[in-house]
Amino acid sequence: MNIQFKKIDAFKKYDFLISCLPLQGCVELQRDMPMKEHPWHRHENNETLIILDGKMEFYYEGHSRICFPGDVIFLPKNILHGSKALEEGCNYLIAFETLEHLK
Fold first, then answer.
1. Which of 15, 48, 80, 81 has an alpha carbon within 20 to 30 A of 3's alpha carbon?
2. d(Cα 3, Cα 72) in Å, to the nearest integer?
3. What's the pLDDT tens digit per position in 59-72?
4. Exposed, middle or buried, 89 (CB in 10 Å: 0-12/13-18/19+)?
5. What is the CATH number for 20?
6. Residue from 33, 37, 38 nearest 53 by CA
7. What b-and-e string marks burial along 44-57, b requiring 16 or more CB atoms within 10 Å of the CB?
8. Strand ranges in the chain using DSSP code E only, listed in sequence order
9. Do the domain assignments include residue 13?
10. How far apart are CA 57 and CA 52, in angstroms?
11. What is the pTM of this model?
12. What angle do CA 33, 39, 87 make, to 5 degrees?
């Protein structure tokens, strides 16, 4: 399974955030200060990341991509990856499952 990227309108934030909630459970809002790095790691579950504000470099298995507000990352479980917030930092949502309705 490969990592997939997509662009959405992240500026209608409230309705969008509500649509990202699972039937039962939660999502995480993450704030990374400028140049904060999450070094190489893996997860045991699928994740969906949605960039809300700022920019992030997302890197994985020989690739790197600069992500902007509205970018969605569909991250399959067990994929080695990392990220680094850029100059203005980055705020993003993490759902601990694949949000199929965004694909």
1. 15
2. 10
3. 999 999 999 999 99
4. middle
5. 2.60.120.10
6. 33
7. eebbbbbbbebbbe
8. 4-7, 28-32, 37-41, 47-60, 63-67, 71-75, 81-95
9. yes
10. 14
11. 0.85
12. 30
pLDDT in tens, 32-78: 999 999 999 999 999 999 999 999 999 999 999 999 999 999 999 99
Domain membership flag for residue 75: yes
In the predicted model, is pLDDT for residue 5 greater than 90? Answer: no
Tokens linked to 98:
């694949």
Check: CB of residue 84 under 8 Å from CB of residue 35. yes
Tell how far CA 28 is from the center of its chain. Answer: 10
Say how many domains are in the chain.
Answer: 1
